[in-house]
Amino acid sequence: MPNPYITPKTFRFLSDLKQNNDREWFAENKDRFEGDLREPLLRFIEDFAEPLRMISPHFEASARKSGGSLFRIFRDVRFSKDKTPYKTNAGVHFRHERAKDAHAPGFYLHLDPKESFIGAGIWHPDTETAGLIRRVILDQPEVWEKAVSGRPFRNAFSLDGDSLKRPPAGVPADHPLIEDLKRKDFIAVTDVSKKDLCGPDFLKEFAKVCKVAGPFVKFITEAVGQRY
Question: The whole model's pTM is what?
Answer without folding.
Answer: 0.94
